[in-house]
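ARCHIVE CARD
CATEGORY: sequence design from structure
SOURCE FIELD: tokenized fold
FIELD CONTENT:
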């Protein structure tokens, strides 16, 4: 490893470090230190942005402590990770305090609800909620109880921001500050609660469980429903601009935690069979779990293995999944190519032209503060203008790139369909289509 690191360019070394970080999550504890040796402070500092946007930074810190490999990492990086952990723990406490208040009010008044994602992933996917980069609270609420839920949310200082009259409501409190990656682990000045309205007879609410965490007792989806949601959530975000690698790790850990639970897997199969794109989402999530982190022995692989993936989806995953998930970029247009392969995705009806180059102004990223001064308004306009120009450049560059990649993907799919290849044969065929398919771009 060391000799290879010395010979490679800086970008190659950083790419090797990213892959090593992913690999250690599936390694025996006594091998973690050796896998990360040989990487210098420069490589680690260059990888910090990716560790943050991938959601793996705090999971890695926890792994380094639990395996005794913490001193393999340069001191400056250890300090930076510990600082992130301390700030995220404070932010998690603030989120949990609000979740606990809402859960108490909902339970006392008979509101039928379930907390989604976030805290509901503990303990199967996430051992400690403070290790997860969570930005808001998501709730599923019965339609007949939506008004009562909105009343209690307003008690915490939230107002309806958007979605009135739709099945998804967004509530916000506080004022949005200027976007800053340095503050992602801190308590934010603006908080968000997303409420998703379900029919009163929703099976999801009918199967819900109660979760007990330190300082929080709340209703959550059943374990099988959570796993199915994790799979469809991954597929949904792969069909959009950004996906966190940590979501794949959380899914993998959930699968491993339930490996011997036959009733659990029977329920997953039953739920997935009646949920649009659920089987495809589980197949994609398992494919990513093995490709990004290493082989799995889970019996779920037999039922949702990669051999069942449609040729177009399998080709897209092999060509672009690692490129996306190891990239420093927080947005891309590879998703447009996947949307074409996932025929029943919500965006399938959108024209290819609108996906490659939309004709609307991007959503604003800052809200005006109450009693905003002329100086503050000017500063906000400058930030918004900068965002518009960055998005314009993104659409021009990525739109041109996707015109080329679309042809490459079509050739790869045609090769798979012609040869009927699966598994490693399919991977080899696709890699022959593009020798640089799995290169890791830096930036």
């Amino acid at each position: 490893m060391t000799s290879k690191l010395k010979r490679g360019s800086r970008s190659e070394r950083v790419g090797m470090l990213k892959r090593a970080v992913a690999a250690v999550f599936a390694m025996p504890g006594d091998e973690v230190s050796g896998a990360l040796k040989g990487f210098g402070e420069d490589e680690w500092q260059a990888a910090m942005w990716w560790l943050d946007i991938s959601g793996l930074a705090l999971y890695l810190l926890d792994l380094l402590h639990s395996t005794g490999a913490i001193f393999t990492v340069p001191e400056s990086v250890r300090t930076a990770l510990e600082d992130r952990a301390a700030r995220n723990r404070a932010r998690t406490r603030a989120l949990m305090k609000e979740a606990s208040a809402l859960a108490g009010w909902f339970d006392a008044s008979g509101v039928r609800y379930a907390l989604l994602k976030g805290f509901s992933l503990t303990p199967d996917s996430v051992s400690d909620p403070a290790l997860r980069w969570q930005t808001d609270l998501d709730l599923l609420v019965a339609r007949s109880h939506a008004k009562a839920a909105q009343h209690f949310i307003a008690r915490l200082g939230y107002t309806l921001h958007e979605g009135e009259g739709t099945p998804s409501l967004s509530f916000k409190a506080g004022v949005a500050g200027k976007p800053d990656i340095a503050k992602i682990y801190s308590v934010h000045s603006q908080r968000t609660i997303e409420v998703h309205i379900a029919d009163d007879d929703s099976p999801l609410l009918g199967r819900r469980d109660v979760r007990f965490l330190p300082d929080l007792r709340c209703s959550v989806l059943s374990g099988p429903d959570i796993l199915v949601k994790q799979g469809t959530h991954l597929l949904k975000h792969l069909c959009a601009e950004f996906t966190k690698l940590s979501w794949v790790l959380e899914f993998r850990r959930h699968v491993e935690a339930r490996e011997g639970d036959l009733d659990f897997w029977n329920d997953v199969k039953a739920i997935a069979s009646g949920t649009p794109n659920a089987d495809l989402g589980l197949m994609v999530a398992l494919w990513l779990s093995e490709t990004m982190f290493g082989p799995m022995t889970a019996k779920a692989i037999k039922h949702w293995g990669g051999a069942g993936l449609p040729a177009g989806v399998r080709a897209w995953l092999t060509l672009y999944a690692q490129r996306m998930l190891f990239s420093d970029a927080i947005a891309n247009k590879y998703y447009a190519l996947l949307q074409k392969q996932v025929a029943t995705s919500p965006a399938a009806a959108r024209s290819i032209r609108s996906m490659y180059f939309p004709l609307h102004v991007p959503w604003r990223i800052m809200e005006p503060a109450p009693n905003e001064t002329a100086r503050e308004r000017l500063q906000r306009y400058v930030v918004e203008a900068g965002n518009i120009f960055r998005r314009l450049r993104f659409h021009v560059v990525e739109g041109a790139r996707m015109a080329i990649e679309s042809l490459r993907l079509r050739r790869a799919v045609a090769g798979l369909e012609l040869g009927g290849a699966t598994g490693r044969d399919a991977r080899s065929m696709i890699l022959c289509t593009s020798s640089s398919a799995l290169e890791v771009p830096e930036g």
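CARD ANNOTATION: The longest helix spans residues 374-419. The beta strands are 113-116, 137-142, 159-162, 168-174, 190-198, 209-213, 216-220.
SHELF: design records, drawer C
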